[in-house]
Each structure stands twice: as C-alpha cells, then as structure tokens.
Amino acid sequence: MSAPTSSKSRFAAWLDQLNPYDPDRLERDGVRPIRLEEAQSKRVLTRIALVSFVLFMGWALFAPLDAGVSVSGTVVVMGNRKAVQHPAGGVVTELRVREGDVVAQGDVLLKVNPLTTEANLSGVEMDYINALATESRLQAEREGTGGIRWLPELQAYGSDPRVEEAKGLQTKLFQSRRSEYGDQQRIYQEQLLGLQAQLRELHNVLSFRKEQLGVLNEEASSNRELANQGFIPRSKANEVERTRSEMLSSLSNVTSEIAKVQSSMASTRLQLTQHQASYRKDADTQLAEVQKNRKTGKGKIDALQFDLSLAEIKAPVGGAVVGLKVNTVGGVIQSGQVLMEIVPREGRLIVEAQVPPQSIDKVHAGLPADMRFSAFNLNTTPVIPGKVILVGADKIPGTNPQQGDYYLAQVESTTEGVKLLGDKVVQPGMPVEVIVKTGERSFFSYLIKPLSDRFARSFKD
Questions:
Q1: CATH of domain 65-79+346-441
Q2: Angle between the 161-229 and 234-309 helix axes, to the nearest 10 degrees?
Q3: Is residue 371 very low, low, confident or very high in pLDDT (cuts 50, 70, 90)?
C-alpha cells in the first residue's frame, strides 16, 4: 500500500512544481497569497441567480404587454382627392401649375378666355341698372312725391357712369311726365273754376228773375182786377201777363242752364279723377313689368358673374397637383372635363389593411393601432397612432394564390399622428405595417401559447 501512495505524492509534487501559483511556493518566494472562500462565493452567486429568476418570472407572469394583430396595408388617400373641373369649358389662356406642384387653397391653377362672358355681363348689367332707375321713377309717380328716391341696389355700383346716365334719363322723364300730368290737371281745375263762376252767375240771374217774377205776379193780379172793374184797358192787363209769361220762360231757361253747368262740373270732376287714376294705374302697370324684368336681370347677372368667376380656376383645397390633363396654352377644355386632381396635404391619413381570417375575431372598429411606414427611415420616422374605423363584413378573395383571402379594414390616423410625419410626403400606395392593439397579455402567456395550442390540437380527434 505504501508504494502507490508514495508514487502519488511524487506526482503531486511534480504538478506543484509546474504551478507557478502554488501557495507554498509563493510563500517561499516571499509572496503572500489571498485565499478566497470558494464555498461562500458559490453561495452568493446562487442567491443572485435565484433572485434574478424570481424577478424575471414575476415580470413574465404579471407585467402587462400590448397584445395586437400585425397586418400589412397601403395608403389609399390623404384626405379626399378633389377633382378640378370647369362647368362651361373654353380656351386656356394661362396655365400656372405642373404635375406634382403643391398649391394652397384659392391659388389660381389656370385661366380661360372670359371675353364673351364679360361682354354679355356688361349688357345685362346695363339693362339691370336701367330697370332699377325706371322702378325708382315709377314708384315716385305712383306715390305722387315731388322727387325720386333711388333704390339702394343702385348704390352698389357706386359712381359707375352707367348709373349716372340712367338716373339722368329717368329724372328727365319723371319731370316731363309730371309736367304733362300737372298741365292736364290744371286744365281740369280751370274748367271747374270757370263752371263754378258760370254757375254762380246763373244763380244770381235766377234770383233776380225770381224777384222780377214776383213783382210781375203782383202787377198782373192788380191789373186784372182793375181791368175787370173797367179802370184800365184790358190790353194793358194782357201786356203785363205777356211780360210775366216771358219771365217764366226766362226763369225756366236759367234753371236749365244751371243744370247743364252742374252736369259739366260733374263731368269735369270725373275726368279729373279718372286722369289721376289713369296716371297711377299706368305707373303700377309699368312698375309690375319693370320689377319682373329686374328680377330676371338679377338672375342673369348672378349667372354671368358665376361664369366670369370661373374664368380663374382656383384650387378647392391645398395639396399636390396630380393627373394634370391640360398642358397647352390655347387648348380647348370641354364642359365638365376633369382638368386635374388635388390630393390634400392636411387631414387624417387613411390606410387600407388586410386582416387575415384567423385574426378577424380580434379586430373591430374603435381599436387603437400603430402604423409604421416602411418606405421611410425607421430610425427617424416615429410610430403614427391611429384607430380602426371600418372592418369589412365579408372576406375578399386574394388577387393571387400566395396572398390568400382577407378582410378589408380601414385605419385612420389621428391629427397628432399626421403632425408627427413632419415634412415627409406620404403618397397613395405606400406600404404600411399596422399593428392593431387588441388588449394586454403577459410575456409568459406569449411563451406558453404555442405549447398550449399544440396540446389543444393533440387531444382532439
């Protein structure tokens, strides 16, 4: 037994000679080594590992992580495309934009020839101004005022010489017609005054003749008695009777003249009244016709002004010009032709996403979503928040066998999300990665779900 032991000692001694860090050797060389408690170090490491494992399992079991469905999508529109059209058509006189230009709302895109519209508008406006001035004059004639009160619509034309010309013409006509009317009225008034004077004279004659008749009646009665008594000749009594009969006849004539004068006065008054009524009726008839024409003229002016405003085709919204169909000055555009489209630069971003059928039960309208634009630098492009606004009711067949069926969903960005893009230009058709947030799950559930799904399938026939 001693031989093997000695051989082992010699081997250990040989190994110690090869170890430059042997404690005994170091002590002989004057170096004092530091001895570590190997068991204590192992215990510390074990405790650290155990605590770390417990903390990791606690986080994996209880820390909430966003659960979501990842789908691919494309940008379909940024706002709504606005088609630019011209309702009447015409010849292009100026073209101010090119394909891809960015314009602001109200910017002039192109101009068409407005000469025909301007000429028509000038003529219709002249008719309208004349109608307004004529209406003002007719209202003054109907009301019998001493002057014309001009309609406020004329003030909208300011110091337009056409307005001054129309006012001057109607003022002269008003004065002429009023003078003619006044002259005729004065004629009737003078006729009435003459008839009234004649009537007074006849009444005076009638009174005088009645007094004479009274005297003759007394004289005839006295002469009749004297003649019967023989004091005077019968011829003298008969002469008084003849004079009395003549007076009665004259009295009858005067009464008849009075009746005629009174009839003439009534006729003149009627003519006076009829002239006044005819003057006002004529003004009313003309006024109704003028007012009708004025309304028609106003409608024509509005239509022509609208057409004239279309001589400058302006951008309905701010955005980028796409699909430009007009490229030549002098070219003819047709009525209703789509000249170009403008893709708005502001508003919410709409993305159409394709949801796989196995995930459709988790996706519904109202869920929040995150959008990542793979066409941009992912290091500088933030995640854009959005919301699911629409989920299709039925699946859509894929365009190729590799794509498979899918449900169409629309995801809308928030206003703040669009602002996060900054000056990055988003074009329709750009690819987008969309993660629809469906809730919260723990990390541990992510780890065991594949295993639990496999177990669930394995225990089914």
A1: 2.40.30.170
A2: 170
A3: confident
Residue 137, judged by CB atoms within 10 A of its CB (0-12, 13-18, 19+), counts as buried
pLDDT of 296 higher than 80 = yes
With contact defined as beta carbons under 8 Å apart, do 174 and 209 qualify?
no
Q: Is the dihedral of CA 175, 181, 185, 187 positive or negative?
A: positive
Residue 442, classed as helix, strand or coil, is strand
The sheet that has 332-333: what strands, in order across it?
Answer: 312-314, 108-112, 90-95, 332-333
The CA-CA-CA angle for residues 324, 329, 334, to 5°, reads 65
What are the CA-CA distances from residue 37 to residues 24, 40, 431 (Å)? 18, 5, 62
| 216 Cβ contact partners less than 8 Å away, ≥ 6 residues apart | 240, 243, 244, 247
Structure tokens at 238: 């008969």
Distances (CA, A) of 143 to 91, 230, 275, 276: 51, 79, 15, 11
pLDDT band for position 452 (50/70/90)? low
Contact 170, 134 (CB under 8 A): yes
DSSP 425: P
Alpha-carbon distance 410 to 365, whole Å? 9
| CA–CA–CA angle 267, 269, 272 (5° rounding) | 110
In angstroms, rounded to a whole number, what is the distance separating the alpha carbons of residues 17 and 39? 26
CA 383/CA 216 separation, integer angstroms: 134
Is a pLDDT exceeding 50 seen at residue 104?
yes
CATH number of 117-311: 1.10.287
Amino acid type, 253: N
Per-residue confidence band for 454, with pLDDT thresholds at 50, 70 and 90: low
**Would you say 316 and 85 are in contact if contact means Cβ atoms under 8 Å apart?**
no
**C-beta of residue 71 within 8 angstroms of C-beta of residue 436:** yes
E strand residue ranges, 44-186: 64-78, 82-85, 90-95, 102-103, 108-112
* Mean pLDDT of the chain, nearest integer: 77
Listing DSSP states for 174-196 in one string gives HHHHHHHHHHHHHHHHHHHHHHH
Which token pair is 314?
């302006």
Task: Give bridge partners of residue 19 from the DSSP assignment.
Answer: none
- The 8-class DSSP code of residue 396 comes to B
8 Å CB contact between 209 and 252: no
Q: For the chain, how far is it from start to end, CA to CA, in angstroms?
A: 69
State how far the Cα of 395 lies from the Cα of 408, in Å rounded to an integer: 7
